[in-house]
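Case study 2.
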Amino acid sequence: MGSGERGEPVGRAPSADRGGATVCLLAIGLVFVLVGVFGAAVGAARCARHQARNAADFGALAGAGRVLDGVDAACARAADLVSVNGGRMTGCRVDGLDLIVTARVRVAPLPGLTRDATATSRAGPARS
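Prediction:
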């Protein structure tokens, strides 16, 4: 087999490949990156929701043991437990012997985007 002036085999037309597959591959890669970022953002929001729920649960349980000492004592104890669990108490009230606590956790699922995850929990004596 001989070769032409450009080093290509004789009888073949010059290659018409202009990088179309590269562009498609880059587009597919970008889609995967965007899906991954979106999945990470959803995961961060769900984790914040669970953290807010745990903080509210622990705060309500801890504060319910102090309801008989007064609303201030119960809510102070609840606020301590909520903050230890990474939340901020935004509400606390007594309903009979039950303590109702609302906790908030701030999350930044994407850079520049900040949201709050909120959960409310109720704790008190067992009822028959």
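The beta strands are 88-95, 98-110, 113-123.
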